[in-house]
Write a structure and sequence with these properties.
This is Protein TIC110, chloroplastic-like isoform X1. The protein has about 900 residues and is an all-alpha fold. It has 37 helices and five strands. It is elongated and about 200 Å long. Residues about 1-75, about 325-345, about 695-705, about 725 and about 760-770 have low confidence and may be disordered.
Length: about 900
């Protein structure tokens, strides 16, 4: 059977009971003694106090039961059984001293020899018979003498038993008393009978010391057993054998247990035996106590038994010291932790905890966790009290109690930190240090919000005086560490509360006039930030936010009055708001209102832009005090979106005519809506000719040089109207120069130019013919160039490229064979006039065509052998 069941949790199903185990040795105790012992266990107990005389070899921390708060150890009065009676012969031996006993033995032996010799001489009549009688009676006398001496160890053992049984408190025995008994009878303590009695006494005593069943150890068992063992003078191997014997008894009782509760009690008792035995024999327990071999118990199970019992004992020790930790207030008095309403906890007690931990063989990790749990409990209670007050929605005066509870936590934390920094802190109990909520009631994500509420309440209280003191800032950092809040979480809460307090302080400074009266507004604001430990950059953001709120209130009716402007300027000066920030705020807030008006004006369309809309635009443009550039940028952004929509529809059209129709709609929109909108924004009359967009100096020089080309190209002359038509020209300040690439803009312009140059007219009977457009279309083309943002050079290039393309196509037909005759020259001149291409460009195209044709003819002639090298050289010399 696996006896590890003593150290593990028993299954819910009852195990079958085994009546015997083949590997258990027989009980070395005498049957009568064992029966007497078991009978004594069932008798009524009387309680005695165990002596707490401290052994020099045992740590003082094990004397836990000596304090008044420990229960009195229960010892059975007949734990060793009743007194034993001596037989008549043993009583005779007991009455003799060793000297008398030896002399008596000698006399008995000598008397027997003399009597035998005398009887043999008397009745035998010869010397030989006398010698035989002496030998016979001498042998009998020797037997009597041997019997007299052989019962001495038993008599000594009986007297030892009776001597120990006479003590109400066996712990007061000392080694000298035991040695005196052995010396009285002239025997050694190693005598088999005497040593057996010693082992029997030790076994009974250890059994009585171990608490039965589910009772916990008191902590003094190890010291008491070691002291008693040393008093008996029993060797460790013999004592260890008795511990193993007790284990066998517990094992048998476990097998005989009738229910699960009894089984659990025996298992607990076996664990306590293992723990106490391990501490009694120390490092030698690994080979003196063969638990694994005898009971099939693993090393891990032994460690489990030691750990569990050590935790219980250390828990009792810690609990006895920490009973007053829930009281307040906490103060440091010298080296003492003063708790009002309880006794002081001094350094000696912390040192005693450390010694107890080592004596109980408890790991540092477990000891630290237990001590931290002890210090965490009063903190949890304070936090719970503060939360109850916070959530009870009581009157404001009760809020101070929240801070009081949190101050208790902080004072307790400071106390533990001071103890951790004590010069002898390495001798203190493990776990002395800052308070931590890990592993406690508030170590969960569900409780973090409650802790944040408490932290926020403490921040409010810290700023209640209008300034953040250094000690309060330190306390907040400690509270953050205790609550386990992240740096960002704590800073966010502190920033939120400090921002509100800063706003309140700022409002008071403005309303009282202190800020306005200050010589240096910046210094006043900086001092306010320093008092509150507030970030200056966050303060600047608050200033900007306040300014924006005031501005939004001022423009609620769609315009800024002179009074509003003065108030805003005063606010800007008091809050030291940079001009760029003010302009950005106006551009954002006023710009959004102006953008709304502009969009409504644009949405009215060509037919809806009436006097009412013009009035609304002018009011928004001048009433919101927007800079002209800002207003134009807002209008430009909205108008260009409409232009882009026209462009997209023009590109998606199926024919050039349809594309031109969409472009004409855009030109009309620009003339009738956008031009009026720009004039209203500038405050100008719509009849005033629009100003030409600024032209760079380099571009102006180029335009002057291209005047000839404008006059030479017929299409360009039509696009470039006279000065008398400038009054009807649409605006060009808002254009698509930055929204479309140059190629897309020139392609759109070219599309409408081709529409202007040619068109298709439908007549009845399904007939179509091509015709030319009038000059009015070229005027619209000019406006299109302005909308597209094309420069004069780009427009000239478009016109010239189209003229060159038309001339080249027809010239290639005329010069198909590459021969340039007089008739063909006249025909090309007529073509050049019809197309409207300048002569120099026409000659360049003609030369290019003839050169290409001639080169092809020469290559053919050379290939056919009709042209020699000499002739080629002559042609080259002739300039061909």
């Amino acid at each position: 059977m696996d006896t590890s069941i003593f150290l593990t949790v028993s299954p819910s199903v009852a195990q079958p009971k085994v009546l015997f185990s083949p590997f258990l040795p027989p009980n070395p105790l005498r049957l009568s003694t064992t029966l007497a012992y078991h009978q004594s266990r069932r008798r009524r107990r009387r309680r005695y106090r165990i002596s707490t005389i401290r052994s020099a070899s045992i740590p003082t921390s094990l004397s836990a039961s000596s304090s008044s708060d420990q229960p009195i150890k229960a010892i059975e009065p007949d734990v060793f059984g009743g007194k034993k009676e001596l037989t008549g012969f043993q009583a005779l031996v007991d009455a003799m001293s060793p000297t008398v006993r030896i002399a008596s033995s000698a006399l008995i032996f000598a008397g027997a020899i003399a009597a035998g010799y005398g009887l043999g001489s008397k009745f035998g009549g010869s010397r030989n018979v006398a010698m035989g009688g002496a030998v016979a009676l001498g042998t009998a006398g020797a037997g009597v003498a041997y019997a007299l001496n052989s019962c001495v160890p038993e008599v000594a053992a009986v007297n030892l038993h009776n001597y120990v049984a006479d003590f109400d408190d066996p712990a007061v025995l000392n080694k000298e008393d035991i040695e005196a008994i052995a010396n009285r009878y002239g025997i050694s303590k190693q005598n088999e009978a005497f040593n057996t009695e010693l082992c029997d006494i030790y076994c009974r005593y250890v059994s009585s010391i171990l608490p039965p069943g589910n009772e916990d150890l008191k902590g003094d068992e190890v010291e008491t057993i070691i002291k008693f063992k040393n008093a008996l003078g029993i060797d460790d191997p013999d004592a260890a054998a008795m511990h193993m014997q007790i284990g066998r008894r517990i094992f048998r009782q476990r097998l005989e247990a009738a229910d699960r509760d009894a089984d659990l009690e025996q298992r607990r008792e076996f664990q306590k035996l293992i723990y106490v035995s391990t501490l009694v024999f120390g490092e030698a327990s690994s080979f003196l106590l063969p638990w694994k071999r005898v009971f099939k118990v693993t090393d891990a199970q032994v460690e489990l038994a030691v750990r569990d019992n050590a935790q219980r004992l250390y828990g009792f020790k810690v609990k006895s010291i920490g009973q007053g930790l829930a009281f307040d207030p906490y103060e440091i008095k010298g080296c003492h932790l003063s708790l009002e309403g309880s006794k002081d906890i001094n350094v000696d007690q912390l040192v005693g905890l450390r010694e107890a931990q080592l004596a109980y063989r408890l790991s540092d990790e477990l000891a630290e966790n237990m001590f931290k749990e002890l210090t965490r409990k009063p903190v949890d209670e304070n936090i719970s009290t503060a939360l109850n007050i916070l959530k009870s929605r009581t009157r404001a005066s009760e809020a101070t109690r929240i801070v009081e509870e949190l101050n208790k936590v902080l004072k307790f934390n400071n106390l533990l930190i001071s103890l951790k920094n004590h010069p002898e802190a390495n001798r203190f109990a493990r776990g002395v240090g800052p308070v931590s909520l890990l592993g406690g009631e508030y170590d969960s994500d569900r409780k973090i919000d409650d802790l944040k509420l408490l932290y926020r309440a403490y921040v409010w209280d810290s700023l209640s005086s209008g300034r953040m003191e250094e000690d309060k800032l330190t306390a907040l950092n400690q509270l953050r560490n205790i609550f386990g809040l992240g740096m960002r979480e704590a800073e966010s809460i502190k920033l939120e509360v400090t921002s509100k307090v800063y706003r309140r302080q700022l409002a008071q400074a403005v309303s009282s006039g202190d800020l306005a009266a200050a010589d240096s507004k910046a210094a006043y604001l900086q001092n306010l930030c320093e008092e509150l430990q507030f970030d200056a950059e966050k303060a600047v953001e608050i200033h900007e936010e306040i300014y924006r709120q005031k501005l939004q209130q001022a423009v609620a009716d769609g315009a800024l009055s002179d009074e509003d402007v003065k108030v805003l300027e005063k606010l800007q000066i008091m809050f030291c708001i940079p001009r760029e920030t003010v302009e950005a705020a106006h551009a954002d807030i006023c710009g959004s209102l102006f953008e709304k008006v502009v969009k409504e004006a644009i949405a009215a369309g060509v037919d809806g832009y009436d006097a009412e809309i013009k009035k609304a635009v002018r009011k928004a443009a001048f009433g919101l005090c927007l800079p002209r550039e800002v207003a134009m940028n807002i209008a430009s952004k909205a108008v260009r979106k409409i232009f882009i929509s026209y462009i997209q529809r023009a590109r998606a059209a199926g024919s050039r005519t349809e594309s031109a129709k969409e472009l004409k709609k855009m030109i009309a929109f620009n003339s009738l809506v956008v031009t009026e909108l720009v004039a209203d924004i500038k405050g100008e009359s719509s009849d005033t000719p629009p100003a030409e967009p600024p032209v760079e100096k380099g571009e102006k020089v180029v335009d002057e040089g291209e005047d000839e080309e404008w006059e030479s190209l017929q299409s360009l002359r039509k696009v470039r109207p006279g000065k008398e038509s400038l009054a009807k020209k649409g605006q060009t300040e808002i254009n698509l120069k930055d929204d479309l690439p140059e190629r897309d803009r020139t392609d759109l312009y070219k599309t409408y130019l081709l529409y202007c140059m040619t068109g298709v007219v439908n007549i009845p009977l399904g007939t179509q013919f091509t015709t030319k457009k009038g000059d009015s279309e070229y005027a619209l083309l000019n406006q299109l160039g302005g909308i597209l943002g094309l420069t004069s050079k780009e427009i000239v290039e478009v016109h010239r490229s189209l003229a060159e393309q038309a001339f080249r196509q027809k010239a290639e037909v005329i010069l198909a064979d590459g021969q340039l005759t007089k008739a063909r020259i006249e025909q090309l001149n007529e073509l050049q006039k019809d197309v409207g291409l300048p002569p120099q460009y026409a000659q360049k195209i003609i030369k290019g065509i003839t050169t290409t044709k001639m080169a092809a003819a020469l290559e053919t002639a050379v290939a056919q052998g009709r042209l020699s090298i000499k002739e080629i050289r002559e042609l080259r010399e002739a300039g061909v």
